Amino acid sequence: AQSVTQLGSHVSVSEGALVLLRCNYSSSVPPYLFWYVQYPNQGLQLLLKYTSAATLVKGINGFEAEFKKSETSFHLTKPSAHMSDAAEYFCAVSGRNFNKFYFGSGTKLNVKP
Amino acid sequence: NAGVMQNPRHLVRRRGQEARLRCSPMKGHSHVYWYRQLPEEGLKFMVYLQKENIIDESGMPKERFSAEFPKEGPSILRIQQVVRGDSAAYFCASSPSTGGDTEAFFGQGTRLTVV
After folding, report:
1. Mean pLDDT by 10 residues, chain A (113 residues)
2. Shortest Cα distance from B45 to chain A (angstroms)?
3. Strands A87-94 and A107-112
């Protein structure tokens, strides 16, 4: 069985501050892990994905995530928040065979000026 | 190359009516997935289709919901006799292949409101 837990439904940071969004997964097989971003009334856009290559994955817009098997985590970070980063972020794990995603409940990021 | 196109973007139905949601995948993509997002929740998998075939419908409610992806034309998610609890955003995604590491591209969603 696969599942994702995102700690913190709302995170607020100041512009220029570190962004850390937490994601822990549960998977009975080696997972594929994804971070998606959703802007208001929009679809989901892929930020980055882990597919069992390098454990530190770099994505778009300066985001990166590190796969830690011992902690079953895949936290998303960005060194310096920008106002345009305000959105909802979803962590997801997929099956090995096809894109059946199991999404976390999402974290809304607020960036204060 | 246009992205995944969903229409309508907003749909209002009265209880008991039918809702038909359409999804045109990206060009060259033959794998389509439907997800439902209830307010304040993450997306939940509903169904995975390949052209003319339902591969996995484990997330579909047993009654009133059906999906198809015909040889020609868009994929359709059909909800019969809608109820208030069906109010949600319905997202379609497509991918060019079936591997679990393949990026899925999402449409902008159809927001269904049942009054």
Report:
1. 89 97 87 90 89 88 94 96 96 78 93 96
2. 7
3. antiparallel
Q: How far apart are CA A87 and CA A84, in angstroms?
A: 8
For A94, the closest chain B residue by CA position comes to B100
Taking only the tens place, the pLDDT of each residue in B16-34 is: 999 999 999 999 898 999 9
Pair A104, A89: CB distance under 8 Å: no
Chains A and B form CB pairs within 8 A to the count of 73
- The total number of residues shown for chain B amounts to 115
Q: Do B101 and A49 touch (CB under 8 A)?
A: yes
Distance between CA atoms of residues B20 and B22, nearest Å: 7
Please report, as a single letter, which amino acid is at residue A83. Answer: M
Instruction: Determine contact, residues A15/A84, Cβ cutoff 8 Å.
Output: no
Q: Select the residue of A6, A32, A90 nearest B101 (Cβ to Cβ).
A: A32
C-alpha distances (whole Å) from B101 to each of A39, B4, B20, B48 are 23, 19, 30, 16
Whether B12 has its CB under 8 Å from any CB of chain A: the answer is: no
Residue with tokens 């999804």: B23
Taking alpha carbons only, the member of A76, A74, A89 closest to residue A33 is: A74
